[in-house]
Each structure stands twice: as C-alpha cells, then as structure tokens.
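Exercise 7b. Backbone tokens:
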C-alpha cells in the first residue's frame, strides 16, 4: 500500500519529472564503431562462455553464448579515439540463419556523456545490410532513454573472427 501511495503522490505533484531530477526531454544522435575480436588471442574482446552439444555442427552456431567487452571508437580503425566500451552478452539464437540475440550496455568514457550508459536489446540478423535494435534504457545523461540503434558491418575477418560494426543511435532522454 505504501508503494501505491508514493506513486499517487508523485503523479499528483506539479512536476513529477522535476521530483526525479529530470530536465527537459531531448533527442541525441550518436555515431561510433565497436570492435568485436573473438579470435581467442590475448587481445580477444568477445569470449565463448557456453555452447550446446550441437552448436559445433550447426551452420548458424545455434546455442553459442558470448560475453563481450568491446572498445567503442570514433572511427573504424582500432587506433581511433576510444570513447567507451560495449559490455554484455550475445547468443546465436536462430537455427536457420546467422542471427544473434544481443543484450548490451554501451558505457561512454569521454565527452558529454562520460559515465553514462545506454542499454540495447534486440535481434541482430548479422547478414542483413542494416540491422535495427532497441535502446531500452540508460543511466546518467541517458536516464529513462528510449530509441533505436542501426548497425552496419564495416569490416569482417572470418579467419580471425574480428568484426568492426558501425552504429548510428537515435535516443530520446532527459
């Protein structure tokens, strides 16, 4: 009952956004790259942490789970300025096409959004030219964020399992 009373009191107040420390709603557009290096070397940023017994014989790697801590950069080169990290998990989630389920946090470590995060979740059919995934939340400057991310593979090396993905994010936040 106390929770209900708190919600009613907040909605009844003159400005519930102000009571939560929120400013005016705005839209931000972000452009960056992430570098997913799954080659098992000492520089790997994506590691396989689990797989089903049948994953190795699956043409889509169905059942493979990876944990990632990829650098976010301003440009496509790995030597570009690092602006943050992409941390989370992705799993091969289709038996018929190479498609990933992704649950990720983008942690920004420089500039206007330093210390803030965006949370993305969605289906990533990696063979499509452009993939759209949902921004479902965030922290810091991105508190109560919502929006979408468009991903395009910039480069792929299937031998070393190294990928560079270009991201364009449109996010509504306070």
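Sequence design result:
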């Amino acid at each position: 009952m106390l929770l209900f009373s708190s919600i009613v009191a907040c909605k009844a107040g003159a400005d519930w956004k102000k009571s939560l420390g929120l400013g005016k709603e705005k839209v931000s557009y972000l452009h960056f790259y992430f570098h997913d290096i799954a080659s098992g070397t000492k520089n790997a940023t994506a590691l396989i942490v689990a797989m089903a017994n049948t994953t190795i014989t699956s043409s889509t790697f169905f059942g493979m789970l990876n944990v990632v801590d990829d650098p976010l950069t301003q440009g496509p080169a790995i030597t570009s300025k690092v602006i943050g990290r992409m941390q989370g998990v992705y799993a091969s989630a289709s038996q018929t096409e190479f498609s990933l389920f992704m649950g990720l946090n983008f942690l920004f470590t420089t500039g206007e959004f330093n210390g803030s995060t965006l949370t993305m979740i969605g289906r990533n059919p990696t063979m499509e030219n452009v993939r759209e995934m949902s921004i479902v939340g965030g922290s810091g400057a991105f508190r109560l964020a919502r929006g979408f991310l468009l991903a395009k593979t910039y480069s792929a090396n299937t031998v070393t399992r190294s990928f560079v993905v270009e991201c364009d994010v449109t996010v509504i936040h306070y």
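Instructor comment: Strands lie at 26-37, 46-50, 65-73, 82-92, 99-108, 117-125, 131-139, 146-157, 162-173. Helices lie at 2-12, 16-19.
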